[in-house]
Amino acid sequence: MDLIIRNAAPRDLPVILEIINHAILTSTAIYDYEIRTLEEQTAWFEKMIADGMPVIVAEFEGEVIGYGSYNIFRPKIGYKFSVEHSIYLNEKSRGIGVGGRLLGSLIQRAKESGLHTMIAGIDASNRGSIEFHKKYGFVEKGYLREVGYKFDQWLDLVFMQLILKED
């Protein structure tokens, strides 16, 4: 697969918006209820860039098929070396290596930025994502019962962690 991983650009925002809104409406990968507007997604993108946080896309044959980003884990100065990442793919691009390429790029960027740890917050029912993260060295570090609520059910959250070290 001739896949390109690159920095996202404003022209990518409509597709990023479509991908995230699909996840909001159909999954527990994100605990949001309401779809986002292009204005909200643009504001998010501009803040990420202003804060020096990466937003990257996976492009195949000229089409954006997924994106990833990370941001500071919690908004306190002591967490400045810890980030939490997110990766979202369109439905037809799952299970073919796109997520791994995005995650690999985010990990490399985090290392190059001098960050210490990367965290994933994953809905506990998403065994595929948990196993995916294990393949990349993430270790389960926490399990929080019934901290989310969506689709008329309580949701458990798994935290996984990767300590970023040079190989």
TrEMBL record:
Q: Which GO terms describe its molecular function?
A: acyltransferase activity, transferring groups other than amino-acyl groups
Q: For the N-acetyltransferase domain, which residue ranges apply?
A: 3-165
Query: Taxonomic lineage of this organism?
Result: Bacteria, Pseudomonadati, Bacteroidota, Cytophagia, Cytophagales
- Give the CDD domains listed for this entry: NAT_SF
Tell me what this protein is called.
Answer: Phosphinothricin acetyltransferase
Note the Gene3D superfamilies from the entry. 3.40.630.30
Record-linked InterPro entries: Acyl_CoA_acyltransferase, GNAT_dom
Q: Write the record's keywords in alphabetical order, separated by commas.
A: Acyltransferase, Transferase
The superkingdom listed in its UniProt entry is: Bacteria
Question: Coiled-coil annotation: which residues?
Answer: none
* PANTHER family hit by this protein: N-ACETYLTRANSFERASE, UPF0039 PROTEIN C11D3.02C
Q: SUPFAM superfamilies in the record, alphabetically?
A: Acyl-CoA N-acyltransferases (Nat) (SSF55729)
**Organism in which the protein naturally occurs:** Dyadobacter koreensis
May I ask which residue range the UniProt record assigns to the signal sequence? none
